[in-house]
Amino acid sequence: MDFKLLSFLIFHYFLINSSSIYASLPFPKQSLPTKSGYLTVNDTTSSAIFYTFYEAQNLTTPLSQTPLLIWLQGGPGCSSMLGNFYELGPWRVSSSHRQNVEHVALNPNPRSWNRIFGLLFLDNPIGVGFSIAATPEEIPRNQKDVAKHLYIAIKKFIELNKSFKDRPIYITGESYAGKYVPAIGYQVLKKNVRLPVRSRVNLVGVVIGNGLTDPISQVATHAANAYYFGLINDKQRGQLELLQEKAISLAKNGDWSEATNARSKVLNTLQNMTEMPTLYNIRRHKPYQNHLVAEFLNNVEVKKALGVNETIVFEVCSKVVREALHEDLMKSVKYMVEFLVKNTKVLLYEGQLDLRVGLVSTEAWVKRMKWEGIDKFLEADRKVWRVNGGLAGYVQKWRNLSHVVVLNAGHLVPHDQPLNSQAMIEDWVLEKGVFANDQIENLSTNLFDVL
Fold first, then answer.
1. Is 411 a catalytic residue?
2. For this UniProt entry, which residues form the secretion signal (predicted)?
3. Per-domain residue ranges for the chain?
4. Given 145, 214, 354, 427, which residue is catalytic?
5. CA–CA dist 119, 169 (Å, integer)
């Protein structure tokens, strides 16, 4: 059977069998996920991670070989439904005003990341979005516990359908997922080596966009970055540097809570100095419209369609979860990325216009990586990257590590540059164009060498 026809049949099977349930929905029934629901991470308390899954719209390979992308939002405490309905999902929220009333609607996103890949959104950690934390005490306080829950959820998702078992898996995310992604990737590889082949998670690569990964290195870059963007003068740069040094000192002394507060003071001071509407994209004249996602998902009929308790009040970002991870914020997971890059593919990307967790802050920790290939990576040329003939950005690559600068994008790259972000993820996964890989390391043997 033609694979594109098979894809069409699979995608529409769920719609046909669900038409009576979704007839009254305030959005197109074809926008519904292929699957959605809960993955229990604690059978005793029933705490669970909420998910939405969208099968590939166009199959270019047999289903059993079609990659699965997992998306994790940052925060800490923000829902992956932001990524789903505002950035890279197959349908995006938009607003219009009629008679001075704002109306929220869904529109097709032709630049979705599930064009040729399966796409799974996980509301992580528990307590975020529609996910359920039985008690506040059960919400993870560190990346080890975050990874523990994610691992259980991913294993349970794979068990939902036998076709998922052998599919290549790529774990992706942005912002504070710069810690979640390495944490779960590290957990998967550590567990894989101790499991029989049929029980392993087929992790092939990880992707971090505008990620907070090594906060001590990254907080040290804000003053210089803003100065060279022309947003502050030399006196203000000095003032910011003093605040940065305090945050770094507190973190190095293990005063994690106060270090987090000190980092917040750096960013708040920078915001006050520049009066930017948002540090997430210096060209935006107003903040991102995250609230549209909450307005849409708090519709009772939408909740019913997604299989969530209609009494749950959806928040884009949870203050409770953010507070739970307060002491975790300034802790580094760079060592996890160092482990991953030795054993799987790693993609780092940043929007050029992000003043909060952007390019300069990522380069600050990458150049300090303990990896035998780091010198070769740093010496590699930064190649011009074009999409449909237009300049999209720049790619620096050596063996397992790729680093992308996305032009004219801020913190939410798939929102700001949907076409280019789609091209980036597809070409990187498929190793096409500037991501063509003729120097891949022997991952299967390296994994056992480093354990």
1. yes
2. 1-23
3. 35-214+289-439, 218-274
4. 354
5. 10
